[in-house]
Design goal:
With 100 residues, this protein is mainly alpha-helical. It has three helices and no strands. 77% of the residues lie in helices and 0% in strands.
């Protein structure tokens, strides 16, 4: 492995924290979905790095499954955002308080 394993984990950790900040701090539904997607990609980077570190293909196989779930999550999430925008004319999560 050309890149040290610690650097891969550091990159994955930084991306996860940035995605968490984006998902929690933003007041826009699209940015929240984007933050969750960044967190899933950070987990995929960690799995691929550990797979390369221990010469095992299970991490890469799990990453393929994770990317498939992430793509599905993005498509369903954006469909929900489009529906919510058409219904309320806003993507502010504060305006969706029907269950409170």
């Amino acid at each position: 492995m050309i890149v040290p394993f610690g650097h891969v984990l550091l990159l994955a950790g930084v991306l996860f924290v940035l995605g968490m900040f984006c998902a929690v701090a933003r007041r826009n539904l699209i940015m929240m979905v984007l933050g969750v997607e960044i967190m899933l990609n950070a987990a995929a980077i960690a799995f691929v790095g550990s797979s390369l570190r221990w010469h095992d293909l299970e991490g890469q196989a799990f990453t393929l499954m994770l990317l498939a779930v992430a793509a599905t999550e993005v498509s369903v999430g954006l469909a929900i955002v489009v529906y919510a925008f058409r219904r309320r004319d806003s993507v502010d999560p504060g305006s969706f308080n029907l269950l409170q």
